[in-house]
Amino acid sequence: NAVLIGCGIGNTKQTAKLVKRLVLESTVPTVIDADGINALVSNINVLKNTAPIILTPHPAEMARLCGISVAEVESDRVNTALSFAREYNCIVALKGANTLIAIPSGEVYFNTCGNNGLATGGSGDVLAGITVSYLAQGLEPLEAIKAAVYIHSATADKVASIKGERALLPSDIIEAL
User: Fold this and answer.
1) Are strands 100-102 and 91-94 parallel, antiparallel or unpaired?
2) Residues 118/56, Cβ–Cβ less than 8 Å
3) Average pLDDT over the chain, rounded to whole?
């Protein structure tokens, strides 16, 4: 019912070929994260006219996708994500402080919870997994990513209140779910 690609897959020419093929052939909502996003840089136009796509980049991945610097992404997070969502007809969940979700119609949603502990490697993989789980359960793509971003960050806040932000691990979020 849904596809997730990118988490831990590696960043090679074979990865780029695989991501391109999966995106072009998928008929179900697809979440692309991490190395899947990096693999798109050389094949970005495959995003057009495909099944629903949700991208979950952090600012450096967004910068690579757009061919701009991280500083440029951070200086205009809303317009960067929104322009990309419109041009490639996909949902963009740009991670970071107040993760934002941009959709092709021009709407932008902001998450107001979460903490610095979410910057730990692997935390984005958890978000991607929650998102694809919601999609597989039948939620529409926008509702799936909105729910996933909130649950992910609210759970991280709960765990951080006990362990502290610096000690927060992705596995802690999974256990707390």
Assistant:
1) antiparallel
2) no
3) 96
